[in-house]
Structures are given as structure tokens and as C-alpha cells.
Write a structure and sequence with these properties.
13 strands; 2 domains; elongated; alpha/beta; Rossmann fold; seven-stranded mixed beta sheet; six-stranded mixed beta sheet
């Protein structure tokens, strides 16, 4: 089952097979385009390009069943779409296979890992998780009152989780070299059912809370969500990752922010570059992180803190500031 969303400017019968009509589509790895996360940010970028006249037509398929990944991409490729944007790690291999099968179609993989085989019709956006964690750590160090900061993280066997959480440690130390974040990794996780350990996440959060932690960072699906929920119940400030966890939690009043992947900036940049130069910018590019809105806790993050956090974000993005975290544990 496919759910097809269309968002076209009021033009008569746009035909994507015509060279003068530039069509862009989006396929989600799972979930809706209004998910409050990567899907939504990528779709917003496409909508912005449509509104500005950079593209002529935009459509999306929301994947319901992961077994439909190949077919969902094929749907747009066979109908002459010029650029297909695929969002999410699970679409990595289907996107690469599609790029090989349809060399005349351009593909943009958002949050896909590096590929050893470059393809002239494939661009990928890679997000450096250590930078997202670094931002979260800097925020935690700026708002803590007890000088006790903790992190609940899924298994370090997942290199991107390790980068997040070691980046978090580094961000805390950057703000205050005397602080040491206490980070707990999940040694009970498995590759067959990762990120689905809410009992473990809640238990570790409770342990850290009992040690006096007043700011808690959490990464890793349902494991992290449960940790953040427990922190909120105990009146401890939480910081999420990947997407704005404000829209995931039932208890939102203690979530300060989240380190989010700016898929919108990356997708819009590729669209604008492709249309202005007439050449598709294939290859890897590094995406950027920012902190999500502070929502109910804007009062907690003072203007001077926000200015410093923005300076850190910019320095990370342009390479002036390095986290010191390697790619692998």
C-alpha cells in the first residue's frame, strides 16, 4: 500500500518526461512526511524550491512497508522524475541500486552512509553525529546547576551512536574542562532488535538521576525516548537527538532541546545548485546540525548562551572547531 502526496503548482497536466519540466520526488524509508523529523525537513526544502520556481512539480510517497522501498523508487523513476530524494538509512542500498538502473535520473540520499563507489547521478548527505552530540553537550554544560550531567546511549557497537555520545562528552568538556559527563552504553542491545529497549533506558536514566544528574542526553529510538520520559518525570532536564523529540514525548515540559539533522538545508542546497549550474552535484556532502527550538524552556537558555551555542554550531559547520572524536570507537 502506497500513500501518494502531490503538491504541484497550478500548471496544466505537467509531464515529467518533458525536458522543460523539472520534477522532484521524495520517498521516505518509513513514516509520514510530516513526522517532525528528517522526512518533514527534507519535504519542506522541496516545497520551498517549488514555491520559488526552482522546480516545477513535487510529489512524495510515504512508505508503509519496508518491502516496498524498491517499488516506491521505481514508481518515480519510470515516470520521468528528474531527481528522487530518498530519506533514511534503510533506503541506502535501494537508492544505490536504482542509481545504477536509471543513470539518467538523479538521486539524493539523505542520511546515507559513505559509499566506496562514486556514481555520477547520486549525491549523499552525511551527518557527522559527533557534531550533533557536541552541540548537545555544550548546551548541557551551560544549563546544569549540579555540574552532574549524564547520557543514556544505545550500544557503542553502532558507530554512529558512539560518535553521538563521545561528541556529547567532548561538548561538555569544551564548555567546562572540569566537567565529565557520565555516559552509559547499552551492553544488552542486539543487532536484531536495536533501539527497542525502553526498560533498560528508563532504568539507566533512574540510576543517573539518583547520582544527582540534572541534565540527561539520550540517543537511540525507544531506548532514548524512555530515558527522556523518566527524566521528565523526575524533574530532570532532557536533551534529545536526531529529530525534535518534543513531538515524540508524552511529557514535554522538561525537554530543553534536541540536536537535529538539518535535512532541509542540505536538500535545498542540492536543488539550488543543480538548477543554477545545470549540473547535478554528485558525491558526498556533509550535512549540518542545529539545536531544535527550546519550546517551553526558552527562559532557561539565556541570550548569551544562545549566542555562544550558535557560534559553536557555525564553527563546527565550517571546520574551525573539531570535536576530536574519530569515526570509529
Amino acid at each position: 500500500m502506497l500513500l501518494l502526496l502531490a503538491a504541484c503548482r497550478p500548471l496544466p497536466a505537467l509531464d515529467c518526461t518533458q525536458p522543460q519540466v523539472f520534477c522532484v520526488s521524495l520517498v521516505t524509508a518509513y513514516g509520514r512526511v510530516d513526522d517532525g523529523g528528517l522526512n518533514q525537513l527534507a519535504w519542506q526544502a522541496i516545497q520551498q524550491a517549488l514555491a520559488e520556481g526552482l522546480i516545477d512539480k513535487a510529489d512524495a510517497i510515504e512508505t508503509i512497508d519496508s518491502r516496498d522501498h524498491d517499488e516506491n523508487i521505481r514508481y518515480f523513476a519510470e515516470r520521468g522524475y528528474d531527481l528522487i530524494v530518498t530519506v533514511g538509512y534503510a533506503l541506502t542500498e535501494p537508492t544505490r541500486l536504482a542509481a545504477d538502473e536509471w543513470p539518467a535520473v538523479a538521486f539524493l540520499g539523505v542520511d546515507h552512509p559513505p559509499d566506496a563507489i562514486p556514481r555520477p547521478n547520486l549525491a549523499t548527505v552525511i551527518f557527522p553525529e559527533d557534531q550533533g552530540g557536541f552541540l548537545a553537550g555544550a548546551l548541557a554544560a551551560l544549563i546544569t546547576h549540579t555540574n552532574r550531567i549524564g547520557g543514556v546511549c544505545e550500544s557503542r557497537e553502532f558507530a554512529f551512536i558512539w560518535r553521538y555520545c563521545e561528541g556529547f562528552r567532548a561538548g561538555v568538556r569544551y564548555i567546562n574542562p572540569s566537567l565529565r559527563a557520565r555516559v552509559i552504553y547499552n551492553s544488552e542491545s542486539s543487532f536484531t532488535d536495536p533501539f527497542q529497549n525502553p526498560v533498560w533506558g528508563e532504568r539507566q536514566a533512574q540510576f543517573l538521576i539518583e547520582t544527582g544528574v540534572d541534565v540527561l542526553f539520550a540517543v537511540g529510538g525507544e531506548t532514548a525516548r524512555a530515558a527522556l520520559e523518566r527524566a521528565a518525570d523526575a524533574g530532570v532536564y532532557g536533551i534529545g537527538a536526531d529529530e525534535d523529540q518534543f513531538y515524540r514525548l508524552s511529557r514535554k515540559d522538561f525537554l530543553v532541546s534536541s540536536a537535529i539533522k538539518r535535512a532541509d538545508w542540505a536538500v535545498y542546497s542540492v536543488l539550488r545548485e543543480a538548477r543554477s549550474s545545470g549540473v547535478f552535484p554528485a558525491g558526498e556532502r556533509q550535512g549540518e546540525y542545529s539545536l531544535a527550538p527550546f519550546h517551553h524552556l526558552e527562559r532557561l537558555v539565556l541570550p548569551t548562551m544562545r549566542q555562544r551555542l550558535e557560534e559553536i554550531r557555525q564553527a563546527l559547520a565550517d571546520g574551525r572547531l573539531q570535536t576530536g572524536v574519530p569515526a570509529e570507537p
